[in-house]
Design brief:
single chain; 92 residues; alpha/beta; Rossmann fold; three-stranded parallel sheet; two-stranded antiparallel sheet; 3 helices; 37% helix; 21% strand; globular
């Protein structure tokens, strides 16, 4: 998989990165130090049209993942599974 990760430890840093670069896939944890990862994914998906993956310790809601999320990944996640998930979103 030919990717270059950009680390953004906060919602603010992720928003700044999204304004500066074009991303195919954005991955966020549900809980970030300065905000909600689900809200962040909704913002970047609407603004930039990227695919989104949410990492969370919670099960996916019975009615499915919110529209902001293309792929819901429940922790703990193994590295190989994570790479496969990103690969699916890159080729979607």
């Amino acid at each position: 998989m030919d990717t270059r990760p950009v680390l953004a430890p906060t919602c603010a840093a992720a928003r700044d990165a999204a304004r500066l670069e074009r991303f195919t896939v954005v991955v966020a944890d549900m809980v970030l130090p300065d905000g909600d990862g689900l809200e962040l994914l909704g913002e970047v998906k609407r603004a930039y049209g990227c695919r989104t993956i949410l990492l969370t310790g919670m099960d996916e809601p019975d009615d499915g993942a919110p529209a902001a999320v293309d792929l819901w990944v429940t922790k703990p996640v193994h590295v190989a599974s994570f790479h496969a998930a990103v690969g699916r979103m890159m080729s979607a």
